[in-house]
Design a protein that fits this description.
The chain is α+β, with helices and mostly antiparallel strands and about 425 residues long. The chain has helices spanning about 15-35, 45-55, 60-65, 85-95, 95-100, 140-155, 175-185, 195-200, 230-245, 290, 305-315, 335-350, 360-370, 380-385, 410-415, and strands at about 35-40, 45, 65-70, 75-80, 105-115, 125-135, 160-165, 250, 260-270, 280-285, 300-305, 325-330, 355, 375-380, 390-395, 400-405. An eight-stranded mixed sheet has the order 1-5-6-11-10-9-7-8. Helix 12 links the parallel strand 12 and strand 13. Helix 1 (about 15-35) packs antiparallel against helix 6 and helix 1 (about 15-35) packs across helix 11. The longest helix has 19 residues, at about 15-35. The radius of gyration is 27 Å and the shape is elongated. The structure holds adenosine-5'-triphosphate and magnesium ion. Adenosine-5'-triphosphate (ATP) binds next to strand 6, strand 10, strand 11 and helix 11. Adenosine-5'-triphosphate (ATP) binds near residues 83, 121, 276, 281 and 308.
Amino acid sequence: MELTRLRGFRDLIGADARAMSLVEERARAIFDRYSIKEIRIPVLERAQLYQRSSGETSDVVEKQMYTFTDRDEGETVVALRPEGTPGVVRAYIEAGLDRTDPEQRLFYSGPMFRRERPQKGRYRQFYQFGVEVFGRPDASCDAELLIMIDELCRDLKVPFTMEINSIGDQKCRPAFREALVKWGRAHWDELDEDCHNRIDRNPLRLLDCKRDAKVTESAPNSLDFLCDECRAHFDTVKELLTAAGVQYLVNPRMVRGLDYYTRTAFEVMAGGLGAQSTVVAGGRYDGLVETMGGAAVAGIGFAIGVDRMALALEAAGALPAATPDAAIISMGAAAARHAVVVARVLRGANLNIEMLSPERKMKTLLARASKIGARFALIIGDDELARGVVQLRDLKQSTQREVAEAEAAAAIAEARG
Ligand code: ATP
Ligand code: MG
């Protein structure tokens, strides 16, 4: 047996991991300003939870879930979570919030698991940073979340486009669904086998037909079927986005294929990603809490695909360097001991400092300092120690000067600008 990682599972080392953390940190900081509170939920849940919420006909439930039977729980079939929303809704209902305090703004973050064909931007373990807002049926909430996503993408300096649509509600969607079924039957020969199955089971997803994007050009348009209330809701969302200076495109072909989705659906696409370009996806799901056994409470949410957003960030060259401001090189036992003190002082001045091994030759250590991308090598030998100075070697400009130990932090910080 070879002890290698599984297909579709990734090790992220250094910059790639940092790009992921950066996305999560920035999202957290921005969501904080929108007064969204954290929720932590399990990675393992009853498989039924996802069958009930995502629907038997969704790709995720039909073929992507990692399930197994847990002997400890009375032979319960459990699943590694493929998405965050069902667990959050379960927790919300289980805590009784749907009845006691229905208005909640929550975010979650962590790994999701789907057994799908691995490719760039599509993995079997990936990370989502998601938001769910409950108890807010009003269009201003939809707009607020979209404004927040726009702010995050700008903050990350990722080039992006935002697409929105409305897929109506229980009142007006049946007519749209019927029109899609009719269209699907009429275009049977142009559709692939996946779509043939969708015609009866999940006709909205016909618009996701993967065979050829052109096929769906003649399909009915969800906006033509909206009732007055859904149209007014969508118009308000658009007005608020325009007033906030958020750029968006209306894409009447974009759907969410699950029954509980209502009204607003949206996606954000980032540049530099190839085929897997959707970095944020979400929508309103006013029927979900009730479907899962809770009160009739409105809901809306989205998830950021952190892996893809991190790839977009790196592709845009927007990942700031995290190299040390200085590498400390000491020569001799006494200087090595003092170097520990110097490093602590410099880090106290908010500098990024890496101490190099005291047990190597100067030439090796200077090469090492360059290799790790340090701006300066700060050199301390017995002579420097005795005089209270250090040698500061600028590795970018290949110059060296002596500075008083007490002034080293300022000298390094100054170069950083
Ligand atoms: P796709 O059409 O790309 O399969 P999806 O509709 O399955 O996306 P959602 O379930 O809406 O995606 O998840 C929200 C986001 O999570 C996606 O837009 C994407 O950024 C990310 N995501 C989904 N599946 C994966 C995966 N297997 N690997 C990496 N990121 C993923
Ligand atoms: Mg998918």
